[in-house]
Amino acid sequence: MPTPTSARSHPFTCGSCAVPHSKWVGRCTSCSEWNSLVEARAHGARVTPPGDAQPMSALVPDSEAIVPTGMAEADRCLGGGLVPGSVTLLGGEPGVGKSTLTMLLAAARVRAGGRVLLVSAEESSSQVRLRAERLGALLDELWLAGDASVEAIVAHVDRLQPDLLIVDSVQTVYLTSDGGAPGSVGQVRGCAQRLVTEAKARGLATLLVGHVTKDGSLAGPKLLEHVVDTVVELTGDRHHALRMLRVVKHRFGPSDETGLFEMRCDGLWSVEDPSRLFLADRATGVAGSVVLPTLEGHRPLLVEIQALVVRAAMQHPRRSPQGLDARRLALLLAVLERRADLDLSAIDVYATVVGGVQVTEPAADLPLALAVVSATTGRRLGDDTVVVGEVGLGGEVRQV
């Protein structure tokens, strides 16, 4: 049988960006990833009957309403809830709380009168039951399946007819028709496409849990993020209770929303007033402490920036930021030395955003600079003072 032309001319595919290559190279010419090319599998040509083109004005909008998840912060991120037939990809580092969040979402959907199928391809049924018991999610209409094959998952969906399907995780399920190992580029691509097709055909809201790489990006081919409707990331410092649910992509609403949760022993709880949580333990009358108003999505937050300066013990002083851009800190220290005559050449500078929050916007320039000046001179700012502003290389404060 002759090999399809596309497979002959492009026998290799990048596992990161899915761009085909005519020969193997060590570095992808599209995304510059190293050792990401894998051999493409030859498939027969697909013949799709042509559909009827219609004028945009004649199309009838889908009347199915958005289904609330039952968790206020999750609904804030998702534009009110999950859309029937939509596919959402949830990513996050190990231990950040992805499985806890999905269990709580499943329980909330069941309590609202729905039926949920939870597919756990990573943990045993007894392990999942222990989590459900701890979170108060032992419910009759919350069904658990431990099958890792997509064909078996589809069979469960046919039998149970759930309102919500949760797959944990998309990197561990596999297609029996594909000879690749679970987690390989071909398997992840094939599983994602099959699950998306089933979700669209059935009007089934689907939530896929995904792994992340060591640099924090979602594991697997870039196609995985393209085929789903929504991509959300659960982030947070495991040494802090705060968790942030950030929307990266959303076809049904804004893609810059953020939900805030507090991790407790009995699960994730929505945080209605995060500023109070960030400033609850703030010490008054301490030099080097400044409050900054910042935006997470469309939500304003008040966070504390702290700076500490000590005499350098080494020849080259340290600049150690946490939750801040290291290059921005170096730039501001140079501006302070040049424009404010502040000698920091033999001083170690430590700066942090309390609570594990990441602040990268230029509006943090002025509060960070004032925190360093306050820590260096010992002069305190008022406890009710809030600072915001961008600092230019000339030492001027710019509006934001």
Oligomer description: single chain
Report strand %: 15-25%
Please trace the helix and strand order, writing H or E for each element. Answer: HEEEHEHEHEHEHEHEEEEHEEEHEHEE
Structural class comes to alpha/beta
The overall pLDDT, averaged over residues, is 89
Pfam families: AAA_25, Zn_ribbon_LapB
GO cellular component, one term: cytosol
InterPro entries: AAA+_ATPase, DNA_repair_RadA, P-loop_NTPase, RecA_ATP-bd, Ribosomal_Su5_D2-typ_SF, Ribsml_uS5_D2-typ_fold_subgr, Rubredoxin_2
GO biological process, one term: recombinational repair
Task: Name some characteristics of this structure.
single chain, about 400 residues, alpha/beta, Rossmann fold, Ribosomal Protein S5, domain 2, 3 domains, nine-stranded mixed sheet, four-stranded mixed sheet, 18 strands, globular, ATP binding, RecA family profile 1 domain-containing protein, damaged DNA binding
Explain what the structure shows.
36% of the residues are buried. The chain is 26% helix and 24% strand. It is built from ten helices and 18 strands. The protein is globular, with a radius of gyration of 25 Å. The N terminus is likely disordered. It has a nine-stranded mixed β-sheet, with helices on both faces. It is an alpha/beta fold and 400 residues long. It folds into three domains: 35 residues; 208 residues, 3-Layer(aba) Sandwich (Rossmann fold); 118 residues, Ribosomal Protein S5, domain 2. α9 crosses α10.
